[in-house]
Amino acid sequence: MNLGGQGAKSMAGDGVSDLFPVGLRVLVVDDDPTCLMILEKMLQNCLYEVTKCNRAEIALSILRENKNGFDVVISDVHMPDMDGFKLLEHIGLEMDLPVIMMSADDSKDVVMKGVTHGACDYLIKPVRIEALRNIWQHVVRKRKNEWKDVEQSGSIEDGERQQKQLEDAEFSSSGNEGNWRSSKRRKDEDDQGEDRDDTSSLKKPRVVWSVELHQQFVAAVNQLGIDKAVPKKILELMNVPGLTRENVASHLQLFPNVPYRGTHNYSHFVQKYRLYLRRLSGVSQHQSGLNNSFMGPSDPTFGSISSLNGLDLQALAATGQLPAQSLAMLQAASLGRSPNKSGISMPFMDQRNLFSFENPKLRSREGQQPQMSNNSTSKQVNLLHGIPTNMNMQPNPHGSQSSSLMNMQMSQPQSRPVIFNDTGANQISRLPSSIAQPNLSNGMPSGVVLARDGSNSVSQASTMVDFSVHPNTDFQGNSFPLPTNNSRVSIITSKGLLQEDGINSDMKGSRGFPPSYDIFGDLQQHKTQDWELQNVGLTFDASSHSKTQGSINVPPSVLVNHGFSSSQNNVQNRSTSVGKVMFSVGEQSGHGNVQSMGQQLDSVLDCNSLRVKAENLPEASGQNMLFHGQFSQEDLMSALLKQQEGLGVASNDYFFDGFPLDNLPV
Amino acid sequence: MERNQSHRQVANMRKALFDQRYLDEQFVQLEELQDDVNPNFVEEIVTLFYRDSTRLILNIEQALEKSSLDFSKLDTYMHQLKGKTTSIGAIRVKNECTQFADYCNAGNGEGCKRTFQQLKKEYSTLKKKLETYFQFARQIGPVETACRSSY
User: Distance between CA A638 and CA A390 in Å, rounded?
Assistant: First the structure.
């Protein structure tokens, strides 16, 4: 992400980039050479990186070739080869870039047409440089809304965006970077205070793509035909009150590349689409059988994170409904063993659909508490109850010192599968840890699971963040000076929020930002962390595995064990590490291992580490998991010398749509 | 002394172009875009504009000669011309374009033709004036930049 890269370089002391939006990559399309030349010069004067193009078709091919190459497109409305609105539509569907329309035509209906077709802005010619200086805001807003889209309707990210996220993960190695972003984002939110889209995130009911709704969608698409299935028409055919074009559009992005009929991509697309539909039907059947209630009420309120006294987590209580099956499955997977060994042998195409459904209930590991079951709406687990508070309380700037309560809450606010299935599970494992180990904390490995379709024509991204928090808090003496008296950790999976030291941050993020990003922004003032991501990114070609996987029984235990560890060089603080892993593998387990303070935790690795069985999911926001640990140093010391617990939190979502690859036994 | 005089002359010419509403603020925007990288940016743009619009004017002329006028086609042409003229700040020509488009929408063929004659007149008048201006400005060199504040 260019944005981020620039920001990283230009970090100012206050955390806000001075240079942004320098280098914003703009594609300007106008058939009028005079206008094009003026625009180019103006954009260059804005210090943007300008690519000019005098034909819409060429612009489209440039964009297709290099989907990740631009941040924003400015296009004329009237062009001889292709109407600007047509271009706008293609860009919206294929690249999902912010598009600014411009024309000398200022009549209301034309401007309206631009808006309804999805233009993020409409500039009347002559375009003034002042207007161009501001266009970066559309890039920021778009990213932010994309994030929201994921949250709301589960749009699938494309491969490029995954790439971005990977990059973001790398960027996040700098606390400053995170800080910049969060500041930027906050600023942006402030700027858009009156913005309809912005404020609607909590008010507007999210669209949950239920099976019924989705079947309506599919029926509409079928009726229209593949190449005519534009969001607007689908919406009309579906005729569902409350559903917006944007909802449909993002849902439609499950198969975003709709090539022209006759092009070489077309047949591939059709194939893809059929596969997609087959998956739909396959999952639907299973869906009914499983009585999967993924249509979880949504809109978790994260409002009172700030008042993290560990006790008011109800405010954070998101609702989630997790099928027990998936929970069990996850647990089995995360334990690396599958008691029932639900072998799945099926044609590879369907395998992805069926995979998690084929997993019968698996036994839970001893000591693990299945937290989620069907229709459970909110779970809150306090693992450390009654830890004595007090003892040398030090002044606490955040006022939440007195609570030494490790509060763990897992919530799955919305299981909103794009396709239909969402199985998730959480597990909490209590981990004994030896007192002798002066580990202040272990970090949270988080796996971000990204899906990449092997064929690249439908790239589906998923971000799943798994945090496992292992606060094995042992204090031997006062040997671990904490910079602040109070440490809290709140982790929100799939949003990537980690809180510490009383900093409040919200759940909003833009998808382009790594989940760890807010965390850093907030943590940064207290400490610097080095984040290392190891083993980031595995990509497998679907086709190759398809062959091998055709009839392989794939028990969850035979998974890719993806180990990653994050270490941080911070002796002074509770270490929190978020590792991000990009997988293209259909199923795998992430093995997180965090070292803190140079203390190898290998001995307790198996206990401490989180194993994640992850399948690609189209949306990351399907679940949120919160972990709130809040305790003051003294409290922890007193309490945890006696009582040491490790919390392992794993959460998983299974989205079949985003599961383009087959299981990979390693 | 003589040099000062020519400075003043160029400045006056420029001022007249604005005072007589041949040009509007958009032209100033172009002037501001002129820098070391493109020292003759304004002139290049104006040259490009006239080269680029000549064909368009011709197209409109031919379309107007037809017995039954294709107003939607004329409207499209005129929008193109309007986009160009506004981009260089040729306000008088642009006003004619707007007038033309209004007649187009009203289906007033006579109005279109009458306006087009007026448009061509403004178009070529501006061309002459700008050519003269640029010629003088080139002679006195970069000092011209300093005169910009007079607007």
Answer: 9
